[in-house]
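step: validate -> pass
step: tokenize input -> pass
step: predict -> running
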Amino acid sequence: MSYFKKIIIGTVHSFSSIIVVRILTILTSVIVARFLGPASLGILSIFQNIHGIFGTLTQTTISTGTTKFVAEYKAKNKDKLSDFLSTILISVLFMSVSISIIYFLMSDYIANNIYGEPLIALLIKLSSITLLVGSLTSFQNSILQGMQKIKKIAIIGAVNSTFTLILTYFFVLKMSIVGVIIASIICALVMFFIYTPILYKELRSDTIHIKKYFHIEYFKQILNYSFPLFIGGLILRPARLYGQTALALSQSFVEVGYFRIAFGLYSMFSYLPAAISIPLLPLISEININEDNKHTRIYSQILRIVIISILPVCVLSILFSKQIIIFIYGKEYIEATVVTQVLLLSAFLGSISSVIENLFLGSGNTWQIFYINVYMAITFVVSSYFLVPMYGVTGLGFAWFLVDLTLLPIFIYFAQKNSYLDVHYLYSPLALSFMFLGLAFAIDTYISNNKLMISFFCICVLILFEFIITTNDEKKMLHRAFISVMRKIK
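step: predict -> pass
step: emit ->
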């Protein structure tokens, strides 16, 4: 099976799950937003950003490395996998327990001395257990991803979102904001007990056994790969928290609640890059082992398809962002309209960058990701420092936009320099993107009469242009991949 077809089939599995997950996540966020209101939603958003900082330290960095090396060892030296996984498991346990304790002990200081909101301390203390359970679940997921068990990951993701929706509804109804945390704790435990037997069966079928041994050479290997990601996350996450903290302290938690709504819609548009990245990261490792000169074209074609796929959705959402917010969250969040439009534009740029980032991760160039994270942190903090006091929640949205706008050329430059991409493949889809995104803003700002008809015409013209710029080879590859997917489904 070709690499492109593998990516398409893996993406279909993960994309199907992500569609279900996104729908259920939206329903969950609607329940939370409508029951809590803007102020409590702002407090929850601040807490989740704090939790995300500590979660990054326990999960993201090692999990990414685990996926990469599991894919590599499975392709070329499967005998080493048992010792490698044993070492990583011990490392994950030690780190997650240590950070969970620190997280719990710092709760009162963070809540009272920084935000002046005691409720945040209670939320942190309750959620400290999820750092440990979440890190183990993330470790299990990264192994399955490295083994390219994408369909199983997709199904588990859909089950998790279903549980989250049901539990959140009942607990928020009874316990308000604390109910959100209780629901997340129960879901984390359920997911751990779902992943464990599935992973055990997969490892056993490949005669891989996790033992209670620690091998320093494998620890050094994962440390060399993950350390730049660890430090980068340690810098970038607090920088992003600074933006919402500045908004809460200079404006109010209500403004943070508006931003949370806008950022939720921003996150929705990571659906296709997120779906692609699940099969893409392990496949990049496999491609780099087996192919010497084909990867540049493969990666460039993937990125073109991502741009072409998400552009119509982004344009349509910018045109009708106000109506989307009112329909989903209610009129009390209508003040989030402008910042939502800004973040949707930012989401389009960020989606392209996230796919390129996976090229670096799969190829092991984590130090370049570190430097980019440092740049993002500095740019975001400086932008937030000036824009948030002046423009409130809209200023915070523009800070995100400035980061993504300046980051994309940097990613493309480094990708071209490392021969991951041929930038000439991207000229036509990027030019089309900026033209129609600008047109969407102009229509929403200046046109009130016949807006629906004009917007429909705009989308039709966009799709026609996308069909024209898609090459015959890309159309043939997509057609072959679609046929193979249909056969696989049957």
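step: describe -> The longest helix spans residues 3-76.
step: cleanup -> pass
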